[in-house]
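The instructor's notes for this session suggest beginning with a concrete chain rather than abstract definitions. Hand out the sequence below and ask the class to guess, before any prediction is shown, which regions might be ordered.
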Amino acid sequence: MVEQLAGQEVERVPNLLPLRHSRMSVNPFTFYRGSALTMAADLGSRPNSGLQVQLCGDAHLSNFGLFAAPDRAVIFDINDFDETLPGPFEFDVARLTTSFTLAGQNNGFSSIEIENITRAAAASYRNSMAGFAQMGELDIWYTRTDSSVLQSWGRDAAGKKGAQVADRTVAKAQKRTSWSAINKMTELVDGQRRFINSPPLLVRIEVGADVHPLLTGLLEQYRETLIDDRSELFGRYKLVDIGHKVVGVGSVGLLAFVILLQGRDESDLLVLQVKQAVRSVLEPFTNPSSFEQQGERVVSGQRVMQAASDIFLGWIRGAQGRDFYIRQLRDMKWSPDVTLLNPDTLQAYAMICGNTLARAHARSGDAVAISSYLGTSAKFDNAMLDFALAYAGQVGTDFATYTQAIASGKVTLAADEVAAATLAFTAHAGHGIQAIRTPI
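After discussion, reveal the predicted structure:
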């Protein structure tokens, strides 16, 4: 397992790996978030249903949340597609249910509470798929979880108080606009907006005039991947600044950049995230991707699975042959802090995620066939519970092995995240033109 994860890190920035290891080593749940490859290998070795859907590939509960649809309504959906690929539907369900088991264990819930939460995720998936099996394809395609649906879920979970919690949650998301990111991540210097140099999360890159043609070419390449009307909109923005941003747990070590662009004036700003895309962890255990460009694979999978997607989703291939996908950095995006949820709210959240995953699968798979396979009894729910409990035990064993590898020095940690990230980026990228040409 340790060697398997190390093999995955070959394509990553070497000096950022201790930071990744540190974030994975906090507890079994954070280790699980960073070890999607291990689970993909384990699932790939088992018999499967043969019922294919577009998989998220990493459907743990932290990869669901709120964001703004193109019509500016706040909706709830899957929001991470780095590992997306077609495969058996149960791969995603297994990853989702196990994540709830581990979250419950991490929160110190009782065995009965953990079982109820985990079973609720599976039952919600099964019941929702049965509902989608009765719907027409267009109706499935237009279905989405918006604020009214979240209110209903909250009311079912905790009455009027639950509905109020849902309203407050949506209100929080609505405040997380691009301008909230701009205010947090940028500063005015001599009247010019630019990124703050704030490692480890953000390292500003000095861009000289000689680099602009390269960046302009990459942005033109990206623009060609946008739908026509969105390409026209993007063409009204010009590059202002660029920075390197460390994100996530499992993603640490992959290159991620933020780009600041300006439209009509200094109050018309846009922040995009450029994130490296590599081959899906599922690919060795399912079928080869039909996309040679990994950024395109991510964007295509996201558009298939989400009820509504970011208007600025696109992709590029950099001068060094690396693939990237591009999206807005923050557009009313919000996910709950799972450690703060009590058993009732985590169970309600499990039901929302189960429903959302079923809808995402119904868009690409055969809802009737999947629903028939799942049946109308609780047999599937109990089977997924048994799997999740057993696999959570395996994660615990793997985590112990991982911590032993840390103790022996086989896996290195970052003693200081700020110093590690700054050193890693400086060593990898340098400054000026090399800072752009080397990473991208």
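Then share the key points. Residues 417-439 have pLDDT under 50 and may be disordered. Residues 178-332+416-437 form one domain.
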